[in-house]
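pinned: reference chain
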Amino acid sequence: MADDKNPDEVTPEEQALADEWAAALDESGDDASQDDIDAMLAQNDAQPRMPMEEFNAPAKMLEDGFDPSDSPNLDVILDISVTISMEVGNTDITIRNLLQLNQGSVVELDRLAGEPLDVKVNGTLIAHGEVVVVNEKFGIRLTDVISPTERIKKLR
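pinned: its structure tokens
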């Protein structure tokens, strides 16, 4: 389909870009002709564009067995703080019922007792786990970790 396009035909995107250039040149006070605008568009089209598959390189590298810990640039991000949360379950309630909650109220969740918890980092699911007690403090034992490739796919 794209091969049937007439090379002399102006697409709506190209026309919009030409109109933007014309408006910008009018604001600057320069006398711009259509030839000037066409020259600017041709110059813009002459610049090479990165193929879309290049943007998928991180996912491809992970699929090919790339180990991000081998990268020296990884040190730059190791000290960035992220929020990790464990989700027991959730439910939807009305604001009326929310305002009626008080000490001793019970909220029914969408999970069964004993079902694994979701472990999320900045809101993105990365693992499932179960609650454990360590030195009288709650903890979570990871039972299933989502692969890096799957995590990247979910971000798209």
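why pinned: The chain is about 35% helix and 20% strand. Helices lie at 12-28, 34-46, 57-63, 95-100, 148-155.
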